[in-house]
Design a protein that fits this description.
Elements (H helix, E strand, L loop, with lengths): L2 E5 H8 L3 H7 L6 E6 L2 E5 L10 H11 L11 E10 L9 E8 L5 H17 L7 E7 L7 E6 L4 E2 L8 E2 H7 L1 H6 L9 E5 L5 E4 L3 E2 L12 E7 L2 H17 L3 E7 L2 E3 L5 E6 H8 L5 H10 L3 E5 L2 E6 L9 H12 L19 H15 L3 E2 L5 E2 L1 H6 L22 E2 L4 H10 L7 E11 L2 E11 L5 H14 L5 E4 L5 E11 L2 E9 L1 H6 L6 E7 L19
Parallel strand pairs: 4-7, 4-14, 19-22
Antiparallel strand pairs: 1-3, 2-3, 5-13, 5-14, 6-13, 7-10, 8-9, 10-11, 11-12, 14-15, 16-18, 17-18, 20-21, 22-23, 23-27, 24-25, 25-26, 26-27
């Protein structure tokens, strides 16, 4: 989860109360204080609350939670008369644009740092590494509207932010740090996105870098916001969050005409929720008026209507997708510290599931063989699982409908690739490195367990990993035979498949040099993965622990 650094003097000014009260109550707001150093507090917030990724957003929420200013903030949007046009050639490249004019800005070092930090946090949380959304903030007084969002030839040149020399856009992808990091987002296309003013001055090369011409400083008084991307909802979410954060500093928002549409509107959403359902879920008997008061403290407008509440949801709360999201805020507004602890009405005695007992045995064996356990994430991506491993994508891979990042898009089907990724993250550790993992993998709608291990050091080879697999199978009581494997993750002639009970249940061998290169590894590595369904008696009666199998 993101950790946001809050300058306490600035936060006190925005909230209107002392830091002692703020720091005492923040944990009850659903956040953890990581550390306090001097005038700064590092606070961890939930990933689904991007509106809290800046000091201004935190201050707005705390004013409600502390009873200083409750109810939904109101946002007036004037008309700037400024227009943006979008080149049809961007339809297949980066088609969506959001914008706003922000006037009467009063920047100091704290507010600039906060809003720039918000920009980068939104690139990660909403923009998925700038793929879905990229944000540009410009000094409006240095350019002349109207503005154009065009598809440009890569040879177009301008001075990028933090540089003093002109470069072509192609050169930026090779030489500028941001260009190197995000080149993959535009390089597949014959033309690149570009934002220019009426005099053809370059404001931005989204999603890569802004131009030096429109750099924001403490002297900036009027700002042009642009957000571009591949997902319209995400683009407009970013606009709403940034605009409302600027309002907290005293700025005014004006709309921009894009095509036939005026954006942004900053209008609230509306939802009707059940008081009975909320009370039942939270275990707290609430009247409609009490529930409305809790929502007011969380910066909503709420209107009791018999057994239901009509709620107006601020435009920056993009995380509200279900009634239960509102019920969670009711609980926070009520106060977790005001809820009486109650013992569960039932008492049960647990025992280990048979599968857990098997995994425990596997852990003991692997530790005895000199391997250290790691616990990789359940979610990963196809690049790690298949492309880096030189394997074809498993047709049964389970994909997430709404992934939170490009790094976590599928449920793992294998453990070995995740161990290879772990080696990449531990290149600074001394050799040899021998690690293993055991746990669930998912293929289609079925879950089963595997164990995988890797050994990386100067002399890692086929014989070592075969000895490890042989010892593991013997300890588990697995009669096996081996045949030559065709798995591209391993080196030809130094790889084998494990045949148990007439079925292919595992693979082992020396990792192919192409796979090592893909993971950035320079030392010889050997690895294996074994399907634990091959163990006699596995899995017992479906869904029921079977004691005494192992």
């Amino acid at each position: 989860m993101p950790v946001i650094t809050l300058p306490l003097t600035y936060l006190e000014r925005l909230v209107g109360t002392g830091r002692e009260r703020i720091l005492e109550r923040i944990p009850m707001f659903g956040a953890d204080i990581e550390r306090i150093e001097g005038d700064e507090a590092a606070v961890e917030f939930f990933a689904n609350r991007p509106d809290l990724y800046c000091t201004e957003g935190v201050a707005r929420a705390l004013r409600g939670f502390l009873g200083i200013e409750t109810g939904m903030p109101r946002y007036r949007v004037g008309r700037s008369g400024i227009r943006f046009t979008i080149d049809p050639g961007l339809r297949e490249i980066r088609p969506y644009l959001g914008s706003a004019i922000i006037r009467e800005v009063s920047f100091d070092e704290d507010s600039i740092a906060s809003l720039m930090g918000l920009q980068e946090a939104l690139h990660w949380a909403v923009g998925r590494g700038r793929r879905k959304v990229a944000i540009g903030i410009h000094d409006l007084d240095r350019v002349i509207p109207p503005f154009r969002y065009i598809a440009s030839e890569p040879e177009r040149s301008f001075i990028p932010l933090d540089f003093s020399e002109e470069m072509t856009m192609d050169e930026m992808l090779r030489r500028h740090p941001k260009g190197i990091e995000y080149a993959h987002l535009v390089r597949p296309f014959p033309k690149y996105p570009l934002i220019v003013d009426s005099r053809d001055n370059v404001l931005s090369f989204p999603p890569i870098i802004n131009g030096e011409l429109t750099r924001v400083t403490t002297d900036t008084r009027n700002v042009l916001l642009d957000t571009t991307g591949t997902d319209r909802r995400a683009v407009m979410t970013a606009v709403n969050i940034i605009c409302t954060a600027f309002v907290e500093t005293g700025a005014r928002i004006e709309s921009v005409t894009i095509g036939d549409e005026e954006v942004p509107s900053l209008e609230p959403d509306r939802r009707s929720v059940s008081v009975k359902e909320c009370s039942g879920l939270l275990g707290i008997e609430l009247t409609p008026e009490e529930m409305a008061d809790c929502l007011h403290a969380m910066r909503y407008d709420a209107f009791p209507e018999e057994d239901r509440i009509t709620v107006q949801i601020p435009c920056y709360r993009a995380d509200i997708m279900h009634d239960w999201d509102l019920f969670e805020d009711v609980a926070i507004g009520f106060g977790y510290d005001h809820m009486a602890p109650v013992l569960p009405p039932t008492c049960t005695t647990g025992r280990p599931h048979a599968v857990m007992e098997l995994e425990s045995s596997v852990r003991e064996i692997m530790a005895g063989l000199g391997y250290h356990e790691m616990v990789p994430f359940t979610l990963t991506n196809e690049r790690v699982l298949y492309r880096k491993m030189g394997r074809e994508t498993n047709p049964d891979v389970l994909r997430l409908m709404h992934p939170i990042s490009e790094e976590q898009t599928v449920v793992r089907t294998d453990l070995l690739p995740l161990l290879m990724e772990a080696l990449t993250l531990n290149l600074h550790r001394q050799l040899p490195q021998r690690i293993f993992a055991t746990g669930d993998v998912v293929k289609g709608d079925r879950t089963h367990q595997t164990v995988a291990g890797v050994s990386m050091h100067r002399d890692a080879n086929f014989s070592e990993i075969f000895a490890t697999v042989d010892a593991l199978c013997r300890e588990l009581g697995l009669p096996y035979r081996t045949i030559e494997s065709s798995d591209n993750a391993f080196l030809g002639g130094r790889r084998g498949d494990l045949i148990i009970g007439g079925e292919e249940r595992g693979v082992f061998g020396e990792i192919h040099p192409a796979v090592l290169n893909a993971f950035g590894l320079e030392q010889p590595t050997a690895g294996f993965e074994l399907d634990l369904r091959a163990v006699p008696g596995f899995p017992g009666r479906r869904g029921t622990p079977s004691p005494g199998l192992w």
